[in-house]
Specification:
Blueprint: H1 31-89, H2 91-121, H3 123-128, H4 130-158
Helix pairs in contact: 2-4
Amino acid sequence: MANDQTPFVPVFSIDVSATDSPNASTPQPNPKANDIGGALIHLTRQLIEMQSRQNILLEQLLQVNKQVLQSSNQANAQRQNELSQWRSNHPHLVRSCKSALESLSAVQIDFLQQLADEIEEQKESLAESEYAFNDFLDRYGPRMAHLNGILQVLGHLGG
């Protein structure tokens, strides 16, 4: 029975023979371990290569961002120069814009007070009724947007 041939293939093999070689006590490296080590080295090299590519792309992105920022700064400086020239060429209009800005700012304060008062009075119906909320937005939204736009233009021109 000890000599029976079985289809069993051993996963591990242990050498129990006695040898007098000096390296007999040190374990021999497993060839599969070398394959795993080589695979890890290969994967690490790929990872380093990908990180190098990412670094190159990030450097390119930084260069593009610098160019966009410089272009934007140049456009803003040009716009400021044009606005300054316009103000120096139209001093009477600049004074009128400043005066209009002050007057319209007072109107804006009154408008915002009315808006806040109405919200306080109708806060429950605004929260519960979609119709009431949409009606509120229709009444105050466009006015607020237009008023803010006008105030912004007067602020730029009146500087």
